[in-house]
Design brief:
This protein is an alpha/beta fold. The chain is about 35% helix and about 10% strand. It folds into two domains: about 140 residues, Rossmann fold (3-Layer(aba) Sandwich), CATH 3.40.50; about 55 residues, no CATH class.
Length: about 230
């Protein structure tokens, strides 16, 4: 299926469908305005069926509408920070730079020198590393911060299970994924295997309180990017 054309002032580029679903619902819940949202997964491309934060450059290159003729003026790359946020940021900027060298329509894209700031240019670009400044982990780590407060009794048991099973020694992203998936599973009786991407389509919105303060920093970063 071909990508829809870019129509908005701001393009959010994220890793996968779960990220896109969360960002779409967050923007709606917080009244941020409309964004174009694209992710790196492409089932028709043999190298991008799983994709992730190593494919932001190639995703920009493959946009259906070249950026030099699209209405896009701001781009926000939303990526997991993983275990080493500095290395993750450097890797993202490196691939964006390579894409820019290979694709003339990306010439006007400004490349940032640090995360969490919008680098101004003909097309401004910023990189937001989830779960946020000074932290390691992934989207699940961020969402767990909010879901834990919404369901404290079950979250306490999940945290104890994680400790008992040695999960505390896992990578930050693996810890976040285990905790969030387990919390969802023991809280959502109608569909215990529900994933982030299906929460709002299948009546599980109570699992993720989008007005929680855990999402304030991301919201504050995205809000001005949608405005002309």
């Amino acid at each position: 299926m071909p990508q829809p054309p870019l129509k908005r002032h701001c393009l959010i580029l994220c890793e996968a469908g779960d990220d896109a679903a969360f960002l779409r619902e967050l923007a709606l819940a917080r009244g941020l305005g409309a964004f174009d949202i694209r992710h790196t997964v492409d089932p028709n491309h043999p190298d991008r069926r799983g994709a992730g934060n190593s494919f932001f450059g190639s995703t920009l290159q493959s946009l259906a509408v070249p950026l030099d003729v699209a209405p896009t003026r701001n781009i926000v790359v939303v990526s997991d920070a993983d275990a080493d946020p500095e290395a993750t940021f450097d890797q993202i900027v490196s691939q964006l730079s390579s894409a820019q060298a290979a694709e003339p329509s990306l010439a006007g894209v400004a490349l940032p020198t640090q995360p969490f700031q919008l680098e101004r240019g003909a097309i401004s670009l910023g990189v937001y590393l989830i779960p946020g400044p000074g932290r390691t982990g992934c989207l699940e780590s961020l969402i767990y911060d909010a879901s834990r407060d919404a369901h404290p009794r079950n979250a306490a048991r999940v945290d104890q299970l994680a400790t008992d099973c040695g999960v505390d020694a896992w990578s930050p992203s693996s810890q976040g994924k285990m905790r969030l998936k387990t919390l969802f599973a023991c809280t959502n009786s109608r569909k215990p295997d529900i994933g982030i991407g299906k929460i709002w389509d299948r009546g599980g919105g109570n699992l993720v309180p989008l007005q929680h303060a855990a999402f304030d920093n991301l919201t504050a970063f995205l809000a001005p990017c949608a405005r002309p």
